[in-house]
Specification:
Two copies of one chain form a homodimer.
Chain A (H helix, E strand, L loop, with lengths): L3 E6 L4 E6 L5 E7 L8 H18 L11 E6 L5 H10 L4 E6 H10 L4 E6 L3 E7 L2 E6 L11 H16 L7 H9 L4 H10 L2 H5 L2 H9 L3 H23 L5 E4 L3 H4 L5 H4 L9 H13 L3 H6 L1
Parallel strand pairs in A: 1-4, 4-5, 6-9
Antiparallel strand pairs in A: 1-2, 2-3, 6-7, 7-8
Chain lengths: 295, 295
């Protein structure tokens, strides 16, 4: 008997699930990072290790993974070389690689139409209407990812320098940042010079916390970030989107700040991205493909 | 007889002047780049070559530079190691290294109080009241330099992606950018990933041009940039500054956009940065130091 495998591979960890040909999940497991862009060989190793561990968890012989059909959701799926290399090297009978965003959308919405706003260190929006899937944003930190944790943290450090220079009035938020850098703007500049998006992003929760307390600068920074999200939601709604799930690490923090006009469209995700990967595997490789598509 | 030397060393070229002990400029010359941070040895070589060429231009024996007193205005003057290395290696009898900004201020304002706003690829403000000199901004592209050409160009590329994604309405400005990148947002992202501040800055004049014609996006981007400058001028005025010179490549473009409340304080520079370096050399090493200070 062959099984379905779902993989949710991210930069921090890789999660795997094994399901029967009716899509019932039998076992789940977690392994190390699966970033196919920065380290494809480690990613491959962790994908395989995760799949084997899910088999063990389900009480199955892990050697069976070679007979499986798999759907993998991977960041960087749109970068051709990495994907070809990984797909060629996977041990599964058949494998289909999708974006990490698409399996998240599938998990969150099931087979319904709608959109997900993935709000984490970066931001990306995915909209599905029937068979049409459309990506918005997701262009990365340098000139994109508005509303992301990285951009919020970046804006906070910039604002802190303006306060230091006496251009803007201080607030408890900027004072806490200045204190952290020993009141030395050069330390902030040096930090920012070397910072990766995740390093900026670690300041984002602090902005939300201070905004809750009415900190003027936190409120302004957050309003700018929220505006950039509301603008995309406006666009999605204009295109016919009725349901939006907020996903990603900042989703619970953003929830109450999203504009009133969008609040009625926000829905809780039905399931997680790993479940979405299994659902896509079921649709593609399930025992009765046509019925799976119609669910 | 010994002479005074002024040096204006920048990332593109190095300018040098020789003057007599009364500060009368006898010869000027130009040599290659003098970036003491990225390439101190080439900088040293171009500083010496410039000084010798100024002597030749003045009809003097270039061997005489070793008896001179020099003031050098150099970008990166606040980075200790580079400055110590360059100062130790200079062939002059005495040498004093200042910021490129301070010699620009000295040239622009002479010995009067006031401030300069240096608006180019980056932005920095320098204010002088009597013997007190204060720097504002100049923290570099990553989290500073608001209103700079680099930040304007960066904002334009970001806006162009928002237009591509259908979040904002297009304008002739963003259409011209999209066309330049073959209507492919990935080309813009890739450009931005590799771009140095100067690469972003090359888009800034286009924003000014389109704003002159009433382009909506250009007007908005420019308003944001101008606001960041007006805010600093507000701060300078609150501290007592009465005169402001706009310097740098974007100064003539910005002039008409600066807020009305500041227009009466804007003045033309008296002289250039090289003249400022000579003036500082005169004040420091001139034939009658006390009278030079009192001028």
């Amino acid at each position: 008997m062959t099984y379905l495998i779902g993989i949710d591979g991210g930069g921090t960890s890789c999660r795997a699930a094994v399901a029967d040909r009716d899509g019932r999940i039998l076992g789940r497991a977690k392994s190390g990072a699966a970033n196919i862009l920065s380290d494809p060989d480690t990613a491959l190793q962790n994908i395989i290790e995760g799949a084997r561990a899910a088999f063990v968890e389900a009480g199955l012989d892990p050697a069976g993974i070679t007979k499986c059909f798999a759907v993998l959701g991977l960041a960087g799926h749109n970068v051709g070389d990495a994907v070809h290399y990984v797909r060629r090297s996977l041990p599964f009978a058949e494998a289909h690689i999708e974006s990490d965003g698409l399996i998240a959308l599938q998990g969150a919405l099931g087979d319904k139409d709608g959109a997900v706003a993935i709000l984490g260190t970066g931001t990306i929006y995915i909209e599905r209407q029937g068979q049409n899937v459309r990506y918005i944003g997701g262009w990365g930190f340098t000139i994109g990812d508005l509303g992301s944790g990285a951009r919020i943290g970046h804006a906070l450090l910039q604002e802190t320098l303006l306060v230091h220079d006496g251009i803007h009035a201080p607030s408890p938020l900027t004072s806490s940042v200045l204190a952290e850098f020993h009141n030395d703007p050069r330390e902030i500049v040096e930090f920012a010079r070397l910072a990766k998006p995740g390093d900026f992003g670690r300041f984002a929760p602090r902005v939300f916390e201070h905004a809750e307390r009415g900190d003027v600068i936190a409120t302004l920074l957050l309003a700018t970030a929220v505006w950039s999200i509301d603008e995309v939601l406006d666009r999605l709604v204009a295109q016919g989107t009725q349901k939006v799930c907020l996903l990603g690490g900042l989703a619970p923090l953003y929830l109450r700040w999203i504009a009133k006009r969008h609040q009625s469209r926000l829905t809780e995700p039905e399931a997680d991205a790993l479940t979405g990967a299994v659902a896509l595997a079921l649709a593609r490789y399930g025992v009765d493909r046509s019925s799976a598509h119609e669910r």
